[in-house]
């Protein structure tokens, strides 16, 4: 199970690195926009991301 968790974390790093590598200027503007959001909006976006990820994991498995 540890190997699967580490594999998943490695894949997250690969996927997270795609946008900064392919479109660094756009990624930089996106981060600037995120910095202007309130804490509540960021928290809700994080919750939505976790729920969607959990649902996708359930459907795949």
Automatic annotation (TrEMBL):
The keyword Phosphoprotein does not apply. Keywords: Membrane, Transmembrane, Transmembrane helix. InterPro entries: DUF2065 (IPR019201). Signal peptide: none annotated. The chain crosses the membrane at residues 6-23, 44-60. Pfam families: DUF2065. This is DUF2065 domain-containing protein. It comes from Halopseudomonas pachastrellae.
């Amino acid at each position: 199970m540890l190997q699967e968790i580490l594999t998943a974390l490695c894949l997250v790093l690969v996927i997270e690195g795609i946008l900064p590598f392919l479109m660094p200027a756009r990624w930089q503007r996106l981060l600037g926009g995120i910095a202007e959001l309130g804490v509540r909006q960021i928290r809700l976006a994080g919750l939505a991301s976790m729920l969607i990820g959990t649902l996708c994991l359930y459907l795949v498995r």
